[in-house]
Amino acid sequence: MADVARLAGVSPGTVSHVLNHPHRVTPHTRARVQAAIDELGFAPDRRARALAGGASTLIGFIVVDLTNSYFVDMARGAQEAAQDAGMTVLLADSAMSADRELTYLQLLDEERFAGILLVPRPTIADDVWRSRSWTRDIVLLNAQPVGDRCGVAPDDELGGYKATRHLIERGRRDLVFAGGPFTLHPVAARHRGAQRAVAETNGGVRLSTVATEGLRPRHGREVGDRLAQTRPADRPDGVVAAADLLGLGVVQALAGRPGLSVPDDLSVVGYDNNQASWESPVPLTTVAQPGHEIGRTAVRLLLEEMRERASHQHQQVLLEPSLVVRSSS
Amino acid sequence: MADVARLAGVSPGTVSHVLNHPHRVTPHTRARVQAAIDELGFAPDRRARALAGGASTLIGFIVVDLTNSYFVDMARGAQEAAQDAGMTVLLADSAMSADRELTYLQLLDEERFAGILLVPRPTIADDVWRSRSWTRDIVLLNAQPVGDRCGVAPDDELGGYKATRHLIERGRRDLVFAGGPFTLHPVAARHRGAQRAVAETNGGVRLSTVATEGLRPRHGREVGDRLAQTRPADRPDGVVAAADLLGLGVVQALAGRPGLSVPDDLSVVGYDNNQASWESPVPLTTVAQPGHEIGRTAVRLLLEEMRERASHQHQQVLLEPSLVVRSSS
DNA sequence: CGCTTATCTTGAAGCGCATCAAATGAATCC
DNA sequence: GGATTCATTTGATGCGCTTCAAGATAAGCG
Predict the structure, then answer these.
(1) B70, B131, B209, B245: least buried by Cβ within 10 Å?
(2) A:38-97 residues touching chain B, CB 8 A cutoff
């Protein structure tokens, strides 16, 4: 910056002004300084700026698993909202590791980022970072509510409700909810939603539950095989799968079997709007997570917390998932 | 830091020493300072440290599309290698946008990151960032070679060769290469590899080429349908697909058709080791990209460039993809 | 034309830390 | 016991920038 000042024949303070308060500088000198900046290819050191002046313009986003495009959606929503506020989101992939989660948290803390968005690991006893008090503002995404922090999450109960309600409106009367393990909060919540939708019919619709060991296609295929072996009279006519890959497994197992066509004999609804759900031979009806909105909302909360530190009230926001109807129902 | 010094009854310089040169400080005072640090919950400001002392410990990783898990692999490899060197990788998702790519580049430049890893958009006329001279060291990943930069990329030609060679070794004699558009460098390179493998047989194997409009499952299904309509006598017995999703489409279209079982009547090899390739009902033989190694190597090159700036020679590294044999061949 | 006011510009101080030369203290040696 | 040496500790200086009080210049007014 000193070089620029010298070349432009002004004081360092003036260079700083054209960078930060251009209106306070005569158009004439402003032009000269700008010319010097261009000629020297000067790019101000943001660390120094942040050190001297206000805060950083960086927001950190720590994600449990970047392999999951749901979280990438969140990141993009966050980036979008951050950009509107002149800030930037930088990502860190903790890749399921508690250690890394903590390490990143500490790093961003020491780097004095403006704020931190955290998608923690889904474990319950997830207290590694909670035991410590951080200097940065932190907003939790896709996590169970925590009292002393803002949080944004999808309304899984509502999603389960919507999926089930959809099948009921399509005339299905004998439903199965497939998913597991139920220790996973989202699975349990979606299940509750399904139960609520069925309860509203006052006995007009039956719901049974198949607990699976996981949510992968092979678990779904097991469910499908089991359905195929059921006597046609006892056979359900709708499946609410707790995840797309699970639902796809069900569809795969049913493919080609007589009397078991999807969606005529059996409707299937998935969950997550996974890429696989629309690239399947039978595109899957599914519930799309509001990942993008979660990201946007999280940044909004973070900015609020940063700006009105004193009056800020922590809050938990639940966002509504949306039904995407395709060929499987 | 001043607070810590005061509480421990030492000078600020000493606090700095226990942080940076612990051996130069008496165990006794070191313990006292440490106690003060703990009591105050002091976490040093990394920006200030970098400003005063050497360089930052941050490496930026700008990715064209984080939705693609191939790039997440690279990021993880990079993080791994960076960690070994006491550094950290932070990600930025340019989401296919040239603007964002440039903006991030400039941001990381101004934030004085130690170095930058860039996975640029696949376009050829990709000169937005090239026109400018950056202060940071930059390594290109998964990109066409550029003279004045280090670069790391997969050897697609070799991958195409390996896939084809595998089918030949399995006794296949009439092959099809399916993929497109051929303006995509990886597609063209894989095709060349396939041609080389066939050429080595001196006429013992036939290869035809089906140019598709894209690499999605539906394009593959079209190929599969066409194969099914071919007279059995003229029908190929092996398909080299330029991508997994394409290959999966082929398999899907063939499923259940008599005389067209996979892998008996027709073997299929995909490319990318996409998640879908192993979760399919017929797990796909495929070529796995060395994403992890690309990330590791890129960081290695970056560190070399940083440490031996004077003597450093830019280099292009091609990494070997590996064949993953599963049920479709 | 002298003085007040508004507009620009300046230079010093400080952000939080690392480093380095200088000072202090302890240990060693004859 | 005094002189040396080596290990610790100190305090000042500067990293690149913003800001702020103060100085300089220009404009406005009677």
Answers:
(1) B131
(2) 41, 43-48, 50-51, 56, 58, 60, 66-67, 69, 72, 75-76, 79, 88-93, 95
Contact A206, A175 (CB under 8 A): yes
- Which sign, positive or negative, has the C-alpha torsion B119, B121, B127, B131? negative
Tokens of A282: 């039978």
Distance CA B277, CA B260 (A): 19
Q: What is the pLDDT of residues A127-175, one digit of tens each?
A: 678 888 889 999 999 998 888 899 999 999 999 999 999 999 999 999 9
**Which fold would CATH assign to domain A2-44?**
434 Repressor (Amino-terminal Domain) (1.10.260)
**Assigned CATH class of A58-154+291-320:** alpha beta
Q: Does B307 touch chain A (CB under 8 A)?
A: no
Please, which pLDDT band fits residue A124 given cuts at 50, 70 and 90? low
The C-alpha of A200 sits at a distance from chain B's nearest C-alpha, in angstroms, of: 37
Architecture (CATH level 2) of domain B156-288: 3-Layer(aba) Sandwich (3.40)
Res B19 pLDDT > 80:
yes
Q: What are the sequence ranges of the domains in chain A?
A: 2-44, 58-154+291-320, 156-288
Tell me the residue type at A109.
D
**Contact, A170 vs A140, CB < 8 A?**
no
